[in-house]
Structures are given as C-alpha cells and as structure tokens.
Amino acid sequence: MKRIGIIGGLGPLATIKFMELINEKLEKVNEEIEVLVINDPTTPDRTNYILDNKNPNPLSNILEMVKKLETLNASIIVMPCNTASYFYKEIEARTSIPFINIVLETVKYLKENNIKSVGLLATDGTIKSGIYEELLNTYQINYLIPTNDEQKIISSIIYDGIKSGMEIDLDKFYQVINSLKTKGAECVVLGCTELSALRQIYHLEDKFLVDAMKILADRTISYLNIKN
Description:
Blueprint: E1 2-8, H1 12-26, E2 33-39, H2 46-51, H3 59-71, E3 76-78, H4 88-93, E4 99-100, H5 102-112, E5 117-121, H6 124-129, H7 131-138, E6 142-144, H8 148-162, H9 170-182, E7 187-190, H10 193-201, E8 209-211, H11 212-223
Parallel strand pairs: 1-2, 1-3, 3-4, 5-6, 5-7, 7-8
C-alpha cells in the first residue's frame, strides 16, 4: 500500500489545510492510499531559529517525526512548511524515503510555466535563509521581495492573523502583492503555508497567486503515480 507521510504541526492549521488538499485529490482515486501524519506543534519556531541560532533548534523535532514516519513505512515524506525547508539537506541525509521539498517543487513549477520574474511572500526566516533565492537563481528566475515595511505587513498577517485566528486585512495583503506586480513580478508565490491557508479560507482564486502548498499536494500525488 502507498503511504503519504506528512511532517505536521508546522503550524497545525497549515497541516489541516494540506490534508484537505490531499484528501480532495484522493477522493477521485480508486487506489488504496494511507495518509500518515505526525503532528508535533511543540516544534520550535523555524523563523526564530533562522534569525538567531541561539534560539531553540527545531531540527531534532523534525527528524524525530521523520523517524516515526519511517517506522510506519511511509512511501514518501512531505513537509507543508516552506521555512522548515531550510533543513531539507539534513532531512534527506537522515532518511532513505523520498522527501518532497516544497520549495524545490514550487521553483520547478515556475520554470515549467516559463516564469521569468517572481515575487515572494514568506516569513522573515524564509527570506533570510535564501532557500527560495538560491533555487530561483539556479533556475534563472528573477526574485523580488517586499520592502521592509511591506514585509512587516506580511509577517503580521502570518503571525497576528492566520496563526492567531484573527481576521485578515485583505486590502493590505493585496497592497503588497500589487507593489511586487508593479516592480515586474509575473506572479507572486505564497511561500508560507499560512498564506496558503489564507487563500483557502478566503477563497482567493487570483491566478496571479502561486500557492506553494497546492503545488506540494499536486506533486505528492504525481510522485506516487496516482492518476487524478
């Protein structure tokens, strides 16, 4: 039996929304597929660690979840968290199970769709880590990020809004998006799964938005050779 192993709890709402995307796809399939979720919401904040390595390191929690998925015989492992992809090399080195990297798959998607210039909305940790920037440069895609003031808006939406269960000011959200658009972005990547959750909650179908979590769900199904 094919088994999808999910590293969860990074954060919990994003994990739920990712499972909804996976379940929507599996409902259309006649194959028997198990979805295994190890949900550890106690994992230290990834951005806090990336911004200051003196803060608690989340890697041991992540690797412990990987170990548990191994014991459950997961066929592949996915992690619906862009910021935690900072640790993807360590994860790949510690398991023989294929690990689907949300950042890499998103960049591949952009290349496949001939995107030459992209804006990125993400956590401070993701932007500082350079995980998107490095891969976008590799694939020769121009990379645009919000200004410092705009990034504060996005961080507030992620932490004070989605993670806290509060209402989102969509006008401010689109203010940042339109700013990136005027600078030449052909599309904007929702490079934080909390922003992907925002898209689902508010039913945002704007084709200018590229949802990294949705791409991860699509690639997860593809890697298992499931027809959907």
